[in-house]
Amino acid sequence: MSPHRRPLLSLLALLALLVLAVGVSACGYESNSKEVDEGQSVELGELKYNVTFSRYLNQNDNEDEAYLVGQKEAPKGETYFGVFFEVQNESDEPQPLPSTLKITDADEQEYEVLESESIFALPFNGTVEAEEQIPRLDTAAQLGPIEGSVAIFLLPEEASENRPLTLHIPGEGDEEGAEVTLDL
Question: 89, 130 in Cβ contact below 8 A?
Fold first, then answer.
């Protein structure tokens, strides 16, 4: 090997080691961003929200029928949309849940969450007890097919064409809220 190649190989080895070190240090990286994608958790106050799944709901489907208890038949041109959550409270104090949620589409149309009688419903204006979660362990929502509490929206058919859909979770008091880009 020529003496001129040795410094070049050493430099390349050092560069490869540096790239590897940067890659490994990024493992376990956690962002404090208030704008996340579905499936990523976001912290608001002492609560950690995770939208585990979102999808259109079919009133004629046995599973979806349980999520839509108490809802009227969707008007022509509209359909129900479910956003499924896990909410964690890792603090020593009970923490309040928001009173409402909304979805916006790319055209800035707003859709408010609907009240729900379903046993799977996210309990708006409720609380998450200290070191507990919503849905609570061993409940129908936690043991159900999606393993989450649902928030239900009524969306016009054109909303799916105006993506992305963004879920807005209000912060408590003066705290900035969070936005979750839904995966449709």
Answer: yes
